[in-house]
Task: inverse folding
């Protein structure tokens, strides 16, 4: 286990997982710019903490953990900013790269954006990536019971949102 | 949406899909946004920037940790020896202090004109009053002046002249003046401290020219130690318009003098920068041969 990976190793990892990290972050945060920032930060953190990687667990799950934590940090930062001057920021949030953001926006992202970030995470991992409860508990670094509780609440919350829509 | 079957029991075998299940099935099929083409490049770029930052930070750390001086010259060896005894700031300070002391010693050793102390005679006599029991008071001087034949009575009333005469009593102890200095010649222990530093008797005589620029003067006299402050003895000649001159043969030593203009006005030499206070408010010019 090297303390830091060489360039070829790192570029191979980026080649393989950048799309996955981008889409994951896109699901979590719901816009292209944040997803790109999260992807960059994720791979920098991966490079920094390469020696802390546990060989037994899969690299993808570890990258997933880093990406989710990074997007959570960014989400909290934005939330803190938006609480300060929400009206001011709304005008700046509007102009976006719609070509990247438009597909399935109504169907998936509208519902997901109304859920809290914790629920978004479990729904993403359980339904979209079809990971087991144990895997999710490893990735999110929480207990399996808490994963189940969050899944149940997320489902309940999403159902409420969908019924309101209809 | 109804969980109850026809028998009014909860149906577990074939549950009807909830709105969430419908939504999640649709969402799974929905295509995800494709990542931008330059995403890989951007990620690599970010990592390279991070590496560059770490590199500079690491360089800074190594600079801080390594000793700045290597023992490759005599000077740095000296510094290292100092550092082994003292921490770095103290060693530097000691070096600077040693340098300053060295410069001071070198400078003091040089024979510069300003390094010589110029002491006026009255200062010496004041500093050693116990060894000079013969010093005359002002009243004694004025008494002796009134009886002096060489000094005209009207001159003794002018303060400048009294000052000059009083200086004379302190300065020229070896002069053959009869009246005033008889005190000194009779002294069995003549003081050496007040005369040794400004009179260096030597057999060689030098020719000294005194010049002064006085266009409006009628007569100019030179009065000083060399003529025992006799104001009529040495008269300057007018060589050009306004320039008065006299030449004297003087033996080695230190002399004080003034110019007497028109028999009234006392004037120190304006071209001579070495001036000595006579101790009574006036200023004499001083010359050392």
Result:
């Amino acid at each position: 286990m090297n303390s830091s990976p060489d360039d070829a190793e790192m570029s191979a990892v980026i080649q393989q997982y950048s799309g996955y990290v981008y889409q994951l972050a896109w699901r979590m945060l719901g816009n292209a710019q944040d997803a790109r920032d999260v992807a960059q930060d994720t791979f920098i953190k991966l490079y920094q903490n390469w020696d802390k990687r546990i060989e037994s667990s899969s690299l993808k799950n570890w990258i997933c953990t880093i990406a989710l934590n990074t997007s959570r940090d960014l989400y909290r930062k934005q939330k803190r900013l938006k609480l300060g001057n929400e009206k001011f920021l709304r005008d700046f949030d509007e102009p976006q790269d719609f070509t990247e953001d438009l597909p399935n926006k109504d169907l998936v992202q509208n519902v997901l954006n109304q859920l809290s970030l914790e629920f978004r995470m479990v729904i993403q991992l359980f339904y979209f990536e079809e990971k087991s409860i144990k895997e999710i508990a490893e990735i999110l670094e929480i207990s399996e019971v808490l994963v189940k509780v969050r899944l149940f609440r997320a489902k309940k919350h999403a159902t409420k949102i969908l019924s309101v829509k209809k | 949406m109804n969980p109850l079957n026809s028998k009014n029991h909860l149906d577990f075998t074939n549950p009807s899909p909830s709105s969430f299940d419908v939504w999640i099935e649709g969402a799974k099929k929905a295509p995800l946004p494709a990542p931008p083409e330059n995403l890989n490049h951007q990620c690599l770029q970010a990592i390279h920037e991070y590496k560059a930052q770490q590199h500079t930070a690491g360089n800074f750390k190594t600079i801080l940790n390594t000793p700045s001086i290597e023992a490759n010259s005599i000077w740095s060896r000296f510094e290292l020896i100092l550092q082994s005894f003292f921490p770095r700031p103290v060693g530097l300070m000691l070096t600077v202090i040693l340098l300053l002391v060295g410069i001071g010693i070198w400078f003091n050793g040089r024979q510069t004109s300003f390094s010589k102390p110029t002491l006026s005679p009255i200062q010496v006599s004041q500093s050693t009053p116990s060894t000079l029991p013969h010093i005359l008071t002002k009243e004694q001087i004025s008494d002796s002046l009134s009886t002096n034949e060489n000094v005209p009575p009207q001159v003794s009333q002018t303060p400048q002249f009294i000052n000059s005469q009083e200086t004379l009593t302190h300065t020229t102890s070896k002069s053959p003046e009869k009246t005033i200095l008889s005190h000194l010649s009779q002294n069995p222990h003549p003081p050496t401290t007040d005369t040794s530093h400004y009179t260096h008797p030597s057999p060689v005589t030098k020719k000294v020219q005194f010049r002064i620029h006085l266009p409006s003067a009628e007569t100019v006299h030179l009065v000083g130690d060399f003529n025992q402050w006799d104001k009529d003895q040495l008269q300057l000649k007018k060589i050009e318009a306004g320039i008065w001159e006299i030449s004297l043969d003087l033996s080695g030593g230190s002399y004080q003098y003034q110019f007497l203009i028109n028999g009234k006005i006392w004037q120190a030499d304006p071209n001579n920068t070495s001036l000595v206070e006579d101790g009574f408010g006036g200023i004499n010019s001083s010359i050392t041969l």
